[in-house]
Amino acid sequence: MEVTRSNFRESLPTISSAISKASFLAIDGEFTGLQKGVNLHAFDTPNERYQKLRQGSMDFLLMQFGLCAFEYEATTKRHIIRAFNFYLFPKPFSRQAPDVCFSCQSSSIDFLVSQGFDFNKLFREGIPYLTPAEEQKSRDALESKYNQLDMMSSPAFTSPTGADTAVAKGPIEIPSEHKQYVEDICKQVEELTAEGNTSQTLELKPTSAFQRKLVYQTLKLKFHAGLHLETKTNNNRQRYIVISKVKNAEDQKQKEESRKAAEMEELENAVGFSKVIRMISQSGKLVVGHNMMLDVLHVLHQFSCPLPESYEDFKSLTRCVFPRLLDTKLMSSTHPFKDWIINTTLGDLRKLLENKPFEKPVVESAEGFPAYTTDNEQLHEAGYDAFITGLCFIGMSKYLGTFQSPKKEHIPPSSPLIEPFLNKLFMFRVQDIPYMNLAGPDLQPSRDHVFHLSFPKEWKTSDISQLFAPFGNVYIGWLDDNSAFVSLYKKDEADRVLQNITTGDTFSVVAYKDFIERMQKSSSR
Amino acid sequence: MEVTRSNFRESLPTISSAISKASFLAIDGEFTGLQKGVNLHAFDTPNERYQKLRQGSMDFLLMQFGLCAFEYEATTKRHIIRAFNFYLFPKPFSRQAPDVCFSCQSSSIDFLVSQGFDFNKLFREGIPYLTPAEEQKSRDALESKYNQLDMMSSPAFTSPTGADTAVAKGPIEIPSEHKQYVEDICKQVEELTAEGNTSQTLELKPTSAFQRKLVYQTLKLKFHAGLHLETKTNNNRQRYIVISKVKNAEDQKQKEESRKAAEMEELENAVGFSKVIRMISQSGKLVVGHNMMLDVLHVLHQFSCPLPESYEDFKSLTRCVFPRLLDTKLMSSTHPFKDWIINTTLGDLRKLLENKPFEKPVVESAEGFPAYTTDNEQLHEAGYDAFITGLCFIGMSKYLGTFQSPKKEHIPPSSPLIEPFLNKLFMFRVQDIPYMNLAGPDLQPSRDHVFHLSFPKEWKTSDISQLFAPFGNVYIGWLDDNSAFVSLYKKDEADRVLQNITTGDTFSVVAYKDFIERMQKSSSR
Ligand SMILES: Nc1nc2c(ncn2[C@@H]2O[C@H](COP(=O)(O)OP(=O)(O)O)[C@@H](O)[C@H]2O)c(=O)[nH]1
Ligand SMILES: Nc1nc2c(ncn2[C@@H]2O[C@H](COP(=O)(O)OP(=O)(O)O)[C@@H](O)[C@H]2O)c(=O)[nH]1
Questions:
Q1: What's the pLDDT at A150?
Q2: Torsion of CA A89, A95, A98, A104, to 10 degrees
Q3: CB 3.0-4.6 Å disulfide test: which of A29, B350, B410, B504 passes with A295?
Q4: Which of B108-117, B199-208, B267-276 has the lowest mean pLDDT?
């Protein structure tokens, strides 16, 4: 089901009920870019990787979110699926709202349009969102505006936005070029309020903010009460003032109340998609994703709070928002799946899991939900990718059941068989640490057989292999044109390296540990 | 005329001829955002303003460029117009090409979609571009790749991209899970090359880069010459290898040559829109824009070179790329137009200039160009805005002619009457310096009557006015919640301010000059 700004509110109950019926949820995100200015490499530690993604990826936008809720129907032994595809865009809902700046990476944008992604729909119809802190700030701003208005003599003279500061800035002199304009308006208002005139409102032509300011201020001084002013926006996004007569204090108050209600509703809408993340979080359900580290980081950053500087704080935050996470990319590259699955790319994984020793899961779209099928692939639409991810999870869970005696048909997400895969995020392209462990300390494999090598930029793999040839095969993790980490396959040769390779004129070799120490020293200086 | 990636090359001659026939050119740009992280204010000096825009605006993309060429036809006393509307997007043309990251501001994007801007067209069909430096770098990369290939024993084994590094990295061991795959390919190639087989080529299925690498390396070792390998990309953007038989050295060479030619053509296309800017620059024609500072900065930054740190270097660069610039916003707010023109917004300016004492210019679209008219406004399409800007320039030039005796019907852009307005960029929302002077030193009005005031964030305009009331009216240039510049209307009261306002517990007043000095000291520390 496609969810945009226009059907978001009406869809909330459907989303909420899909979540609460689900035995588990699968998610997926699409972004406007992946990373910039940072260099992910094969020997990043989990903390280093976190810091790089925090600094290099969070400026991109998570702008499509896929949620697929899987409900297990015990009688038919199949899953009923409810998939949602949300378009997300931080349209500034009012002038106090944050005017978000985000980055785009041209390769990502190019890739997305080639897959048919509709950016016009995104920008026109994307659902807005606010973090809890932003929501609170907006609430406070509204409160303080109301308080200030209440204290003023003529609360009638208010505009829907920007009034708090504006009101208090006090009268300004009317520059000569605007005198005629303001006088004209006064005349029109005199006519409006003249006895016997039955018109109730007067719409002014769109004008500059400055002219509006002059109108507000002049009418306030000249007409005192009896008038209600409001600034509205026309289809061309020009702003204009509507002046309406108020009969009495009651009428006045009612007009105020209805404006407040409208503003509160506007704020409610602005919180937008963050509500869905709160629902997912509060459900406590297992949340499944494929290669989901960036998805988790973006969801936290965009809808909860800016990612904390400290890696440990990040872990606590994640445990708090998503108490049960499972990464199918990690699961599929771990025993007992590892041996069967050569390619853990989402599309290929799904196909592999339909063949022996695995079994294709039986699923059906719930009524009212358009059917996703694996027959026509819609990969890279977040809703579809979430659906495929869920299928992979079911396929792998089922396989775990075959080792039980008696063999189990259905492994629920709460099964202890799933435990070993929980709360571990796949570490993309890292050589010796398969996952980030959200539930405890990270793995710290020895890197005594890893060396940092710097060299002239003319060097190629063959030069490096040759240098290390005496110690057998090596794995080369390029850092840039001038340096790489080199890891020995034969770990017990490690001791011999520094004894035998003497740093030359053109290159230098340092033990991994010493290299890291130097880096830390120079960065803390 | 709309120009996108698909008709760009064929349009170049039309663009070139339009420019060379023109008596002047009008330009306009649309951006993905305006500025972030910097605070433009009413007392920015030209240098400060430049630095703020350089730091806060250049991450946004100039993604639509309007060019309107105005040709004066003396016989009919009218202008023939040729308007172009270019969509620009830095699609990475190959894997060596820069993968540009750019920023978007949600308010700007929201505004553009509300005006009907088509982002799908932009991202799918935008014309790419390279700065001269980027072009040179790509050329060098290709050269060095060819050189390296020439030195190799088996030049047949190359792929269109990434080959240079790849080739030289040397053979890697085939991991066990890929052995079967590679053997299969070898068998197929043996069949292909078997005597009597008349097939000329073999297309492999799309595979991972690693598998392609294994194929390249294995075939090279096993089959030596007689084969040509090329990596192609299918419609799903998956990459696959095509193996073709080569009859002899001649055939081989020809295949190489045609690949080189294709790569050179690809690079030529990648230079893209920068060619149009070079044409404009080389024409030496007058270039007119409305409120054009950001346009000029973006054009230089995106198509010439990153904006220089030094403001003086920026002036030289601008003079070099655009020797004759004219800003209609500045012109219309300068004597003798100032008195007639209350509103210098582009749309309003155009309307004002159709009424007395001005005269509506006579223009006609050239054959083959869709007619822009002022009847249905398409403001905020860059091509249309450039058209309107040109109209405004003609209107104002004509008016200058009426002061001549005898009255002149047509004032050409080379007229000395235009001189006073040349090479000055309007300074948006600056109080006392109307323009940035590209042709010489900037204005340095005295700011002895300006003060820097800091205060608690509860303060409003009225508090400030009250504080300064003893010295008459003031202009307040807000900096943030806690500070503002305050400028006296009665300049001769300046001396009394610091004598009479003693910095209190909650606020402090400093002369403008002292404030700037302190800032410079603290930033150079
Ligand atoms: N004195 C006074 N000025 C107001 C009031 N409301 C708005 N203004 C001013 O009028 C200007 C126009 O306000 P508004 O129409 O809301 O839109 P804006 O300028 O586009 O923010 C604002 O910039 C405010 O400074 C008010 O109640 N009293
Ligand atoms: N040994 C060798 N490897 C190559 C050659 N051309 C490409 N490769 C490798 O094969 C891989 C696949 O190359 P390519 O198909 O161009 O695309 P890519 O990986 O997607 O860059 C590259 O990553 C290179 O490392 C070649 O001529 N010789």
A1: 61
A2: 50
A3: A29
A4: B199-208
Pocket of ligand 1 (CB under 6 A): A 157-159, 161-163, 166-167, 209, 212-213, 216-217, 231, 239
The secondary structure of B377-445 as a DSSP string is --TTSHHHHHHHHHHHHHHHHHHHHTTSSSPPS---TTSTTTGGGBTEEE-TT-SS--EEETTSPPP--
Where do the domains of chain A lie?
A: 2-129+273-437, 134-259, 450-524
- Ligand nearest, relative to CA of residue A221: 1
CATH superfamily name and code, B134-263: R3H-like domain (3.30.1370.50)
For residue A99, the chain B residues in CB contact (below 8 A) are 105-107
The tokens of B339 are what? 């008195």
CATH of A2-129+273-437, one of 3.30.300.180, 3.40.50.280, 1.20.120.910, 3.30.420.10: 3.30.420.10
Q: To test the ligand 2 pocket, which listed residue (B212, B227, B241) has its Cβ within 8 A of the most ligand atoms?
A: B212
Q: What is the 3-state secondary structure (H, E, C) of A31-62?
A: ECCCCCCCCCCCCCCHHHHHHHHHHHHCCECE
Q: Which residues pair with B101 in a beta bridge?
A: A105
Residue that the structure tokens 């992910």 belong to:
A40
Nearest to A101 among B105, B118, B172 (CB): B105
Q: Residues in chain B, how many? A: 525
Task: Count how many pairs of residues, chain A against chain B, have C-beta atoms within 8 Å.
Answer: 109
Q: Is the pLDDT of residue A46 over 80?
A: yes
pLDDT band for position B395 (50/70/90)? Answer: very high
Helix (H) or strand (E) holding A494: helix A494-500
Q: Which fold has domain A134-259?
A: Ribosomal Protein S8; Chain: A, domain 1 (3.30.1370)
- With both helix axes pointing from N to C terminus, report the angle between B249-271 and B132-151 in degrees, rounded to the nearest 10: 170
pLDDT at B373: 81
CA B384 to chain centroid, in Å, comes to 18
Alpha-carbon torsion (A91, A94, A98, A101), positive or negative: positive
User: A272-327: per-residue pLDDT in tens?
Assistant: 999 999 999 999 999 999 999 999 999 999 999 999 999 999 999 999 999 999 99
- Of the listed ranges A177-181, B245-249, B407-411, the least confidently predicted one is B245-249
Alpha helices in B85-194 (DSSP H): 106-114, 119-125, 132-151, 163-168, 176-193
Q: Say if CB B435 and CB B449 are below 8 A apart.
A: no
User: How large is the average pLDDT for residues A250-257?
Assistant: 81
Instruction: Give the ligand at the shortest distance from the Cα of B154.
Output: 2
Atom of ligand 1 nearest to the CA of A169: 1
Cross-strand bridge partners of residue A364:
A80
Tens of pLDDT, residues A466-493: 899 899 989 999 998 899 999 999 999 9
Pairing of β B450-454 and β B474-480: unpaired
Amino acid in position A523 = S
Q: Can you tell me the distance from the alpha carbon of B428 to that of B49, in angstroms, rounded to the nearest whole number? A: 9
What are the backbone dihedrals phi and psi of residue A94, each rounded to the nearest 5 degrees, phi first? -155, 180
Residues in chain A: 525
Cβ atoms A82, A68 nearer than 8 A: yes
Q: Is some CB atom of chain B closer than 8 A to the CB atom of A103?
A: yes
HSE value, Cβ hemisphere, 13 Å, CA-based, for A465: 11
Residues whose CB is less than 8 angstroms from the CB of residue B341 and which lie 6 or more positions away in sequence, other chains included:
B332, B333, B349, B352, B353
* ipTM of this complex prediction, to 2 decimal places: 0.81
Atom in ligand 1 nearest the alpha carbon of residue A166: 25
Question: Closest Cα to residue B18, out of B85, B80, B86?
Answer: B80
Question: What kind of fold does domain B450-524 have according to CATH?
Answer: Alpha-Beta Plaits (3.30.70)
Burial of A82 (0-12, 13-18, 19+ CB in 10 A): buried
> To 10 degrees, the CA torsion angle through B165, B169, B171, B172?
-110
